[in-house]
Sequence to fold (100 residues):
Amino acid sequence: MTIKEIREGNTLTIKLDGRLDVLTAPEFGKLLESGLDEVTDLVIDLKDLNYISSAGLREMVTAQQLMAAQGSMKIINVNEIVKEIFEETGFIDFMDMEFI
Fold:
C-alpha cells in the first residue's frame, strides 16, 4: 500500500492505494498517531484502495475517534469493492462517506 499526504492549511487529505490490511494498517495507524496535530478536517481518499480488512476498519474507527475530538473526518471516492465491505460491516451507517 502507498500513502500520500496532502496538507492544505488545517486540512489533511490522505490517499490510500492498494490494500489496507493486517500488514499495512500499522503504517496508517502511525500516520494517524503522529500526523493529526493541528488538523481540523481529515479527508481519506479511497479511490485506489482495492481491499480493507478488519485491521484497516479498526484504523478508520481510530481516525474517526481522534477527529471527533478536534474536527471532522470524511471518507471520499469509496469504490464499489470497498463500499461493499463498509456495507457488510455496518460502517456505512456511521461514517461520513462519498462514493464514486
